[in-house]
Amino acid sequence: MAAELERIRVKFVESINRELINQLLDGLLKERVLNRGEKDSILEENSSTKNKARDLIDTVMKKGEVPSNKMIALLQSIDSTLYAELGLPSVKPAQPAAAPEPQPGQDGSGTLINSTEDFWKGKQGQSDTYPAAKESMRHRMALLITNIKFTTLSDRAGADRDEKNMYKLLVALGYEVVKHTNLTGKKIDAAVIAFSKLEKLKETDSVVVVIMSHGKLGAILGVDWKEDKPKNEEPDEFSIDNIYLHLGPKGCPALLDKPKIILIQACRGDKKGSELVKDGLSRDNASHNDDFEEDGLRFVNKEKDFLALLSSTPDTVSYRHPDHGSLLIQFFVAVSNASAHVDHIDELSRKVQQRFEDSKIKIQMPTKDRVTLTKHFYFFPGI
Fold first, then answer.
1. Which is nearest to 273 in space by CA: 331, 221, 327, 223?
2. C-alpha closest to that of 33 among 71, 79, 85
3. Which of 123, 135, 208 has the alpha carbon at shortest distance from 173?
């Protein structure tokens, strides 16, 4: 059906009116073909009705056959006269199904949408886009470290769900995942160093590193971290700066000029934006919502081609649901499933932040940190 939209594109743009555009946008939002950000972008970034129509049909076509079929079915149900004038085939109108109220971060797009071959080809050779040849994409590598059980700190209930969801997403995006669970700070450091030495990194076009644990500003806490440690004992921590050291040009020449995407789910302090029960370095009994918990805690550029998405702003806590997992991972997976086929990583990160802003649970805001990407990086799922 994407071919049918391509065939009628010019006549569609010439024939549509503002009211029909609004009805189609509402229907496509309900059908989850478009998310709210895409709908708003079409309405706000195009001044004329024709430009809105052109943006709408192009956006849906890029999403592939099923979304295109849904748009055609909606057009048939809304304006059968125009539908006939466009010479579209008869299809059964889409019937939106009733669905339960989604949990935070779950937008119904549980399956990753693949990029089209044409979209991938259109980005190749562009000066503002990192190269992503099919051969290099087949050698993609990711590192996933999840701390769940701790010696003295409270265990991170729900972190196993985060680990499962991130692993599933990374595999779907084409990454071979090196996975570790329940590491001390020194072992986290050793795992990142070992990852940086992998021969396969010479062939990859990018890497993703995901670390989830308790934390504090500038550091990830190891599973043996103690609040009251002896003075002569080193704290069981991993410095976040070491990621940039180990994966930078000196520590890992194989990743020179290649995107390095970092996700960190951990607290960066103990200040809060609302009153919710937390775990980690301390526990508060007073709470108006006890469903969420916080995670206590040649000449080349020295640092380039990084983008880190941290789960909260400096000095503040990050929250995690004991059943559904952390908000950052829920939202990142949902946004990637819905938009990674057409959006670059900066836009995906912005949409994740927008999810936090739009959420009724306004308790944290993730932060893009040390962004040194010089071009757009696309995952191109399914290519």
1. 327
2. 71
3. 208
Determine which of 51-60, 199-208, 259-268, 273-282 has the lowest per-residue pLDDT on average.
Answer: 273-282
Q: How far apart are CA 45 and CA 99, in angstroms?
A: 31
Q: How many CA atoms lie within 13 A of 362 on its CB side?
A: 4
**What torsion, rounded to 10 degrees, do the Cα atoms 262, 157, 277, 152 define?**
-90
214 is catalytic: yes
Between the alpha carbon of residue 246 and those of residues 136, 188, 241, the distances in Å are 21, 12, 9
Enclosing domain of residue 73: 2-85
Residues 138, 73 share a domain = no
Instruction: Identify whether 257 is part of a domain.
Output: yes
pLDDT of residue 296: 52
Residues 241 and 331 in one domain: yes
Q: What's the rounded Cα separation, in Å, for the pair 242 and 248?
A: 9
Residue 381 lies in a domain: no
pTM over 0.90: no
Cα separation, 52 vs 18, whole angstroms: 9
Cα(372)–Cα(370) distance, integer angstroms: 6
Is 90 exceeded by the pLDDT of residue 159?
A: yes
Among 139, 214, 321, 341, the one annotated catalytic: 214
Q: Same domain for 153 and 58?
A: no
Measured in degrees and rounded to the nearest 5, phi and psi for residue 144 equal: -125, 115
**Which candidate in 252, 267, 321, 344 is catalytic?**
267
Single-letter code of the amino acid located at 359: S
- Which amino acid belongs to residue 141? M
Question: Can you name the residues that pair with 216 across neighbouring β-strands?
Answer: 219
| Residues 78 and 166 grouped into a single domain | no
Q: Taking all residues of the chain, what is their mean pLDDT, rounded to a whole number?
A: 85
How many folded domains does the chain comprise? Answer: 2
Domain-terminating residue out of 85, 107, 138:
85
Is 267 catalytic? The answer is yes
What are 178's strand-pairing partners?
143
